Amino acid sequence: MAVEDVRQDMYKLGQSEEKSIQDLAEEIRLDLQLQPNENLEGGTVYGKVVDEEGNPIENSLVKIMSNDYEPLAHAFTAADGSYVFSPFPAGNNYRIFAISDGYKLQEQIQFNLLSNQQVEKNFQLEVDPNASNGIIAGDIFDNTTGQPIEGAVVKLYQVDDQQVETLYALTYTNEYGQYVFRELEQDNYIVRITALGYQPAATNVVIDQPGQIANVISNLQVDTATERGTVSGLITDDNNQPIAQADVILYEVKEDDSLNPVAFTKTNDQGAYLFINVARGDYKIKSNKMVDITV
């Protein structure tokens, strides 16, 4: 690039505070402290972005970052694949990247830039074979509360022309109820979701466009069969020995602390008991055992 003498500002354009002249012949003072123009001693970073055959790639993104990946500036290439950052502050260990639709991200070797120095950075981008693949991104919520469901099992099946399903991938939702399937070929899919305490759900998804992103929102219904809980335990004597065939009564504790009997069972030979299909609520048990006495 040719070096030319150009006029530049020595300082950053400054602006003073605001004051008013209100009285007759009043005098005011407006001082201004100018800050140095950091770009005055800046350098130039320039180059071209081409494909594997050397053809220029228009509208490629070129980005400069600091050594610890803080973004500093970006530019887009012209029709001839060229770009330029000028003036750009002098500094050390700059990182520079280039990317374009359908191509892989490429990073050049880190570089230093001195005052008024010109650095050339050219890129030859490789085609990304997965660029035309699609994505399925989903969100799963509780249909009643609207809260995200964490830990749901999400299975992705490919579906052929005979509607035969083949498991393609499996993942789990994060704490926000989110999941993603990546690098999907154009095809027919079914997303099947299972989550503890909820009815299973399924959604058909068609990926038929290059780079398509399909967003799937699923609201799961609570499974009433699994909504109910269980109450279990052991009945023992004062020597900590199990009591077989003991009577066990399950009581629901009402708001006024009164007890309402709701179920009855007996312990097994090891003194264990189990109540199933117990609705939500507060509970206590009472237990005893009858014995025949000859009188």
Give an account of the 3D structure.
- The structure is a single chain.
- This protein is mainly β.
- The chain folds into three domains: 38-124, Sandwich (Immunoglobulin-like), CATH 2.60.40; 134-224, Immunoglobulin-like, CATH 2.60.40.1120; 228-288, Immunoglobulin-like (Sandwich).
- It is built from one helix and 21 strands.
- Strands 2, 3, 5, 6 and 7 form a five-stranded antiparallel sheet that branches. Strands 1, 4, 8 and 9 form a four-stranded mixed sheet that branches.
- β14 and β15 form a beta hairpin.
- DSSP summary, beta strand count: 21
Proportion of helical residues: under 10%
| Integer-rounded radius of gyration | 36 Å
Kindly, what is the distance between the CA atoms of the first and last residues, rounded to a whole number of angstroms? 119 Å
Secondary-structure-based class equals: mainly beta
With helices defined by DSSP (H or I, 4 residues minimum), what is the helix count? 1
Major sheet size, sense and barrel closure: 5 strands, antiparallel
Unreliable stretches covering 5 or more consecutive residues: none
CATH superfamily annotation of the largest domain: Carboxypeptidase-like, regulatory domain
How many domains comprise the coordinates?
3
CATH A-level architecture of the largest domain: Sandwich
Chain-averaged pLDDT? 91
Mass-distribution shape: elongated
Q: What portion of the residues fall into strands of 2 or more residues?
A: over 45%
CATH class of the largest domain: Mainly Beta
Order of helices and strands: EEEEEEEEEEEEEEEEHEEEEE
> What is the fold named in CATH at topology level of the largest domain?
Immunoglobulin-like
